[in-house]
Amino acid sequence: MDTLLKDGAPRINKNFVSWFMEKRNVDMIDELKCVSQGCSCEVTKYEKYDVNGFRFHTETHQKGRANPKTINTGVFTKGANNFDYYGRLQSVYELTFNRTNVQLNFVVFKCHWFDPIGGQRSDKSIGLVEVKPSTTYSGADVFVVAHQAKQVYYLPYPCQKAELKGWEVVFQVSPHGNLPIPSDDDYNNIDPPEFEAAYEACNEVYQQAAAQWNRQNTAYMAYIGEMMISMSTAAEPNGHGYAEGIAVGV
To answer: Within this chain, do residues 83 and 203 fall inside the same structural domain, yes or no?
Structure first.
C-alpha cells in the first residue's frame, strides 16, 4: 500500500490518488465517486473522540490533564498483513468529502505506531503481549479510520531487569457497557508450568514492593511519633500540657 500510494500501480505513471480521481466518469456507486474526488481543504481537528464504545484522548490532551485517573491514548488495530499494530494517538481529524451531490464525513486517527516486528513480542500460552514504545513503525501509513481502532493501555514493569527494561504489557480495554464474554480458549491455552512461573515472578515483585513500603511506613510513623512528643514537650509551661493549634498532615 505504501508503494501504491507513493509510486502508483505497476505500469501506471501516477500515484493511486491521482489515478482514482480520474475515474469519476466510471460507473461506480455515488459514495465511491464522492471519495474519488478528494476531501475538502477544511479539516476539523479533535483532541478527544468517542467511538466503538471507547473514549480516546490525544497525547497532547492527555499530558494537559491535571491528575488524570485514566490514560486513553493507547490504540490497537489489526493489519491486513496479519500484523497487530499498537501505538499512541497523536491527532484526530474529520475529513469532509463534498465535491459531488453526496457528502461523506470520515474520522481518522493519526498515531505513533510501535514497530510490529522489533517492538513487539507475545506469549500465547498465557495471553501476554508486550510492546516497546521507544520503537517506531517505518511505514508511511500512520492513519487509521476511527471505526477500526480499539483501545488498549500499556503498563511498564516495576522490576526493570535487563530482559524487561523498555518493555510494557498490553491490556485490552473493554468498551463501555460491554464486558468480554469468557471462552474455552481463555483456559485451554494456559500452560500450567509457564503460568506458575509467571505467577511466582509477579508475586516476588509484589512481596519486594510490599516489604519496601512497610519499611518506609514504619520509619515515617516513627518520625511522626517523635515530632508529636517534641511538640508536646515544648508546649508544657509549668507542667500544664496543652496542644492547641497543633495540626499534623499525613
So the answer is: no
User: Can you give the pTM of this predicted structure?
Assistant: 0.63
Expressed as residue numbers, the domain containing 48 is 39-184
In whole angstroms, give the CA distance from residue 76 to residue 152.
6
Q: How many domains does the chain have?
A: 2
Place of cell 511498564: 156
Q: What is the pLDDT along the chain (250 residues), one digit of tens a residue?
A: 454 444 544 555 566 667 777 766 677 787 777 777 778 888 899 999 999 999 999 999 999 999 888 899 999 999 877 889 999 999 999 998 887 777 888 899 999 999 999 999 998 888 899 999 999 999 888 999 999 999 999 999 988 788 899 999 999 998 886 656 666 666 566 566 666 666 676 667 667 777 776 676 676 666 666 666 666 655 555 544 433 333 444 4
Q: Give dist(CA 196, CA 55) in Å, integer.
A: 35
